[in-house]
Amino acid sequence: MLFALPSRLRRRGILGMNERNVGYIGEYNSRRFYPLVDNKLETKRAATERNIPVPELYGVISYQHEVSSVIAMLESHDGFVIKPAQGSGGKGILVVIGRHGERYIKSSGQEVDAQYVRRHVSNILAGLHSLGGRNDHAMIESLIDFDPCLASFSHEGVPDVRVIAFQGVPVMAMMRCATHASDGKANLHQGAVGVGLDIGTGRSVGAVQHNRRVTCHPDTQASFTDLQIPHWTRVLDLAASCVEMTGLGYLGADVILDRERGPMLLELNARPGLAIQVANRAGLRSRLTEAAHIAAEAEDHDTRIDLARRRFSVHSW
Amino acid sequence: MVSTKTQIEFIAGVLMLFGVGLTLYKVFALGFPLLPGDYREVWTIESKVSFQPGDGPVDVGLTLPPAMGGWVVLDEHFASSGFGFSIREEIPRRASWTRQLVDQPTTLYYKIQAYRPLERALPERSVSKVKPPRLESDQKVAMDRLVTVLREKSSDVESFTTLLLQALDPQSKDPDADFLQSAWDDDLGDILLAVLAYAGIPAGEVRGIRLEDGRRRQTLSSLVEIHNGSRWVTFDPRTGQAGMPDDFFPWQRGSQAVLDVLGARNSRLEFALLSNSLPARNVTAMEQRAGRYALLNFSIYALPVEQQGVFKGLMLIPVAALVVVVMRLLVGLKTSGTFMPILIAIAFIQTTLFVGLGIFLGLVAVGLWIRSWLSYLNLLLVSRISAVVIVVILLMAILALVSYRLGLDQVLTVTFFPVVILAWTIERMSILWEEEGPHEVLVQGGGSLLVAVLAYLAMSNRLVSHLTFNFPELTLSLLGVILLLGKYTGYRLTELYRFREAGDQD
User: Fold this and answer.
1) Contact check, Cβ <8 Å, B492/A2
2) Is residue A1, in this structure, part of any structural domain at all?
3) What stretches of B92-156 show up as alpha helix (H) in DSSP?
4) Would residue A316 count as lying in a domain?
5) Dihedral pair phi/psi, residue A163, rounded to 5°
6) Fewer Cβ in 10 A, N or C end of chain A?
7) How far apart are CA B395 and CA B417, in angstroms?
8) Predicted interface score ipTM higher than 0.90
């Protein structure tokens, strides 16, 4: 069928864009907390204060005249990531995974020179990749050495886990895997695979690409059926802590899993998208209602997560 | 504490009831027509006499139009603050404003409402003897040749006049006509009258106004009338056609000055024009009631014509806003910029839909192409957008010039497109193209255009413009609807498609 009946979507608890905007973002996310989320530097600072693990920050470039010093700053690092502090939708992120003499190797395998890196930083400062074209800062971060058990699930990109948390309760989660079609980006509408994750166990419950069900990664052929996110408890704990950290009642936390340091907070989103429902084949609406009950029942951070894990658990596959 | 939802519902309810209630009151108690049914085109013509102060007393005389050629004047108003005012009931009638001392630039107003129920020719009048014009010898030779040639080609006085108008047309290459035109560096009317007089044809000038809806600074134009032996026939010098054009309001027969100003400098006579579709009886009835119902003094009709014209357009914008709200919140179309579609729709009103779409797509396509080159140059954002603005202006100029040369006058309306909005659209589309690919450009660009077209269709709808202009209080109801939609939490149409799989499952 081309269209779903509204009554059917409602019964399945699907959250629509209007309800998300009016009922959750408008209601629970006060605008004054947005800068903390929209600016990745601020997020990182606040997270460090609370001992939430984040990728290491090598340096920040704030002014055009500092651009020439960027190469010196990168001297001691083989791999690094340069990104705009206020970028949106994963734009303007340069991932360098190694060196070949004087040249840098991008995650796609392409080699670029120092001039390319400087121009990239200069573009970031001019606001090319930032919301509304504002002047921005360029952050240089450590390269994520992501957990080898997830390596086969992503093509040319870092797989991350998006957890939606509401009032300190983790509500729904998915892993986003870059594909060749998505050009190494983790956006679902560009062709990345979304893998729904069981809140209870961190195991996959299903995967979709382009809104269609898939069972294995289109490029690496790795089967999603046996996917299990390691350190699941810490992933949920991290996401729930972000609610307390930011003051935002409804948010999406993007978590990456480092080989050595375990789950780390990559960035936060005050307006998380609705695609997670497609990946999970479940509605956010009913879960959010339940999450509100949990938040009312339990004050304690760990109890809330416990209750969520028990109530939102679903049968895998 | 009342929830915001209840508050909104209450406010929206009050607004909608107030708007609809006032409308119903105006329909049933005051007899305003709810539907644009058997309407006549009523023209409001506002004459503005403006002048700079001179020394000494000022005396302004304005010839008033007698209703002729089937025109009926429904109503007339004079505005003359601080001036002595009188109307001399001679033929033609003349209004006169006088004042001892004027110390600042002044504008006097004379407003009439007129419509033309019947298409009549101008009334008969006596034919005076034709006086031949005084000519230099070389002019006489040229005139003689011209008249002889035209007489040979024509069968009667009327065809003579038509041929003469063709010969005097700047496009024609008649050497005698050209010479005469260079000799009289005056306007067309004078040569015309001179040639007609030389040919012994009784002729005169008819001065009046060419009616264009929404026109602000119209000046007087002229027709020419000739006596064909049995009756007077009017010709439009622009087209060469016989008969009174529909869009011409005759003000005065004869070449005398319409406006005389003594004791002041730089006097000007300009007209602001507005056409309303109203039943004539309603206009008369309304004018009679205007004194009795305070409500009517607060209707848009109470404003000066220029502002009425502006409001006619302004009151349509809420309708376009409603279209945008519905398409975005209920349907879920993506548009590039929230109100960009409204501005494009307003431009479409001036250009007409298909021409407008063509111009818009052309400009954006060429703009995108040039913008991709600018992107390669790696400029800072502000200067890049400004560069795009300038490029858009240049494109408009080129488009206007080329189309004018090709005789496509309609394309000249390109200037009605808001330049800055176009530039931003190009910039956004270009960034979208680089970051998300052409598919997303198609989705957002197509969404914006679709919303713009729908907004245009709503705004150009006769019923809609009738309702918004005659019942501005309906805008309050519209506001109520938009407030309510702001609290709509149901699904969007596109979401029913997006989540169709989720709905399918058991």
Assistant:
1) no
2) no
3) 137-153
4) no
5) -115, 125
6) N
7) 12
8) no
Give pLDDT tens digits for A203-229. 998 888 887 888 888 888 888 888 889
Q: Do A15 and A109 sit in the same domain of this protein?
A: no
pTM of the model: 0.69
Task: Mention every residue, 6+ apart, whose C-beta is less than 8 A from residue B446.
Answer: none
Residue A107, CA distances (Å) to A50, A77, A143, A262, B37 in order = 31, 15, 10, 21, 69
Q: Which residues of chain A does B488 touch, with a Cβ-Cβ cutoff of 8 Å?
A: 18, 22
Cβ distance of B489 and A16 shorter than 8 Å: yes
The identity of residue B437, as a single letter, is G
Determine the distance in angstroms separating the CA of A314 from the nearest CA of chain B, rounded to an integer. 15
**Residue at token pair 């027969």:** B253
Tokens of A18: 């209007």
Q: What is the distance between the alpha carbons of residues B224 and B203, in angstroms, rounded to a whole number? A: 7
Identify all chain A residues contacting B332, using CB atoms and an 8 Å cutoff: 17
Dihedral angle computed from the Cα positions of residues B325, B329, B332 and B334, in that order, rounded to the nearest 10 degrees: 50
Q: Do A12 and B496 touch (CB under 8 A)?
A: no
Residue at a domain's end among A91, A122, A142 = A142
Mutation pick from B385, B488, B495, B504 vs chain A, by most beta carbons of A within 10 Å, is B495
Residue ranges making up the domain that contains A226: 6-52+147-311
Domain boundary assignment for chain B = 137-253, 313-500
Given A125, A142, A159, the domain boundary residue is: A142
Widest Cα–Cα separation across chain A: 61
Read off the pLDDT of residues B438-462 as tens digits, 9 standing for 90 and up.
888 888 889 999 999 999 999 988 8
CB contact under 8 A, A2 and B500: yes
Say how far apart CA B199 and CA B201 lie, in whole Å.
Answer: 6
